[in-house]
Amino acid sequence: MSFRPDNPLIVQSDKTILLETANPRFEEARDALSGFAELVKSPEHIHTYRVSPLSLWNAAALGWHPDDVKDHLADLSKYELPQNVLSDIDEYMGRYGRLRLVREGDALFLESDDQTLLVEVCAQRAVQPFLAGALGERRVPVKPDERGFIKHALIRVGYPVEDLAGYMEGEPLEVELAQTMANGRPFGLRAYQVESVDAFHAGGTERGGSGVVVLPCGAGKTVVGIGAMSRVQAHTLILTTNVTALRQWRAEIIDKTSLTEEDVGEYSGDVKEIRPVTITTYQILTWRRKKTDDFAHFHLFNDANWGLIIYDEVHLLPAPVFRAVANLQSRRRLGLTATLVREDGKEEEVFSLIGPKKYDVPWRVLEKQGFVAEATCTEIRVPFRADEDRLAYATADQRQKYRLAATNEAKLGVVQRLADEHGEDRVLIIGQYLDQLGDLARLLQAPIITGETPQSERDVLYRQFRSGEVTRLVVSRVANFAVDLPDANVAIQVSGTFGSRQEEAQRLGRVLRPKESGDNSARFYTVVTRDSIEQDYSTRRQLFLTEQGYRYEIRTEG
Questions:
Q1: Domain 191-361 - what CATH class?
Q2: Residue 316 and residue 148: Cα distance in Å, rounded?
Q3: Residue 108 region, left (φ>0) first, then alpha (ψ -120 to 50), else beta?
């Protein structure tokens, strides 16, 4: 293979990859790396990626072969590839599928064509509690009710298992996709939505039925879930992030399928309906009166013969739900998300308990096809309002430094000016700190939605924003996820959750839905305090979006 000094990549022996942003082949290299590597940092000139076992296993699950990865690296690299990196690509990707879980009648077995490998993994203390008998010829019995736990244990010792043990079919439910929606417009799945459903379902075989579909906000992940329901044709449980999302799912299902209001139930703090399709929230599932009590609503997982469980925004799956998920391996499971990034580092749990990544498409690809809005991202750096504010910041501890920078009052005037510049647009002002949001709501004379806003009032304000009766809306973290505001085309972020990459992606997603006005463009502003810890966190927050192809224009104020 030939290596050229004008190529954009430097592949290093520690499995990091450096990518030159000014190189003519930058975008080609970025899109290739997104399939098998993780972006670590993205300053102006050189982006750093890392190849990890999990990134390679997800690539293998998507159908990549080790030679595909090595060929891409060789084609894009300046220098000869380190031998240890090539060996690790073969080694880690070769591990995926070497272990298999299979079922015979009621018995569950861990199998491999490699007897030595079976001996090795069965000797692991983390694996032994889930075995049900002695090691035989190329197989060992597994406790049937420990299917999820042994999968998690195996990935932690470095050997992801391919689960071919099949699924319970669940109670049958006829689900037909609508030809037209309530507004009279025709309905059908887009090509990439069909591809994602196909990848998840895999023709109904045991090789499908569990996994994660990754699509940008606004690309119709709910429609993918509906498509999966129409393939599985069984009673379905759907887990969402909040009551607003729950009711949006319910409305979408009734609008886009043959199911009626009587078929689709809400299980929330207000209503406890169990119907053929039941929609609930992570919040209600993880509710308990005291920390020492059992989770009062976990029974919902077993209250019906579910044939499909859908986890909306699966990257937010609460840690307590993982144990419940581990016991649900015989049910088909679909995770939907815009980003597999978890700030708690539990990506391995999603891989082993929900399933591997089954479908992924770069955000900018769908933007070019017109399926998500064309977004321009701008970071505006402002100084502290006064010297006394700088002094307070300089003498504060680390956490207090962040709050002081995030709530810098100099931001108020910037937000006011941006809102005035976009007087004809639908503008969301998004933040973390309630006092700051209250000040902005008064300054802009705009309504505000926080966690304390009653659900009925939220529904009214969201409806008024959609209709144009309200054109400015101040929102807290409650609007980060699954709030359908298709006409929002400007978002101004004034504060966030430290360096949360997933939050940055979700907030941009509030303005990515394609616009009916014909102007399919959106603006995303993030206002940060210059030369502060908030600026450092902002750089980390932007990592995922940078990986997807977005660049931030930097403006400096004052």
A1: alpha beta
A2: 19
A3: beta
